[in-house]
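Design job #97: recover the sequence.
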């Protein structure tokens, strides 16, 4: 993945509402095909964003999100739905947060990776993306980009591509939030705090305890 850029645009709507009585697809493996599942539906006029450009560690926001409908609505209002721009089954949200947490845990500590027959088991992202390439007339070189089909795929790629570029996922010693260190994060590879504020608060608490 090193050297391959990601090109991704997504739609965010002013609000989202929960609709009940939606028939669940049998192929989704969520429940039987006859089951009815609530879904979140977009409301209003959308505006197009480039979430990965604006939020370099957005995949961590998904990993930290609550697996509730309120958590889904809060995330969607800021970044959009994960699977489809206009509507999303609420159970998909819960599963996606869980899957992202698992992916982050494996990137954070390689011992969390499943081992089969003495080697790390490969993982496959079944949700697709397209591969775009074009000739740059100025440099006479070929530019390549991955174009994810959904926000979730884009976030999974963001997580893995950052790890390939040297970023490490750490837990802040002050607030326990996940953050990136090294790579293109702008933080030292051995950073222990997610921000200067957290570093100050941590040392201030320690000084207060000693007094």
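Job complete. Output follows.
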């Amino acid at each position: 993945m090193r050297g391959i850029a990601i090109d991704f645009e997504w739609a965010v709507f002013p609000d989202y509402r929960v609709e009940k009585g939606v028939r669940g697809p049998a192929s989704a493996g969520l429940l039987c095909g006859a089951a009815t599942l609530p879904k979140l539906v977009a409301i209003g006029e959308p505006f197009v964003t480039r979430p990965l450009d604006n939020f370099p560690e957005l995949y961590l926001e998904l990993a930290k999100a609550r697996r509730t409908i309120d958590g889904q609505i809060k995330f969607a209002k800021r970044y959009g739905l994960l699977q489809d721009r206009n509507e999303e089954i609420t159970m998909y949200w819960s599963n996606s947060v869980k899957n992202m947490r698992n992916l982050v845990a494996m990137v954070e500590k390689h011992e969390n990776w499943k081992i089969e027959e003495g080697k790390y088991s490969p993982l496959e992202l079944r949700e697709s993306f397209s591969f775009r390439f074009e000739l740059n007339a100025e440099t006479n070189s070929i530019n390549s980009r991955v174009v994810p089909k959904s926000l979730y795929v884009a976030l999974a790629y963001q997580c893995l591509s950052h790890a390939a570029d040297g970023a490490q996922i750490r837990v802040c010693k002050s607030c326990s939030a996940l953050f990136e260190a090294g790579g293109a994060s702008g933080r030292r590879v051995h950073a222990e705090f997610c921000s200067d504020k957290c570093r100050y608060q941590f040392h201030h608490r320690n000084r207060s305890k000693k007094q």
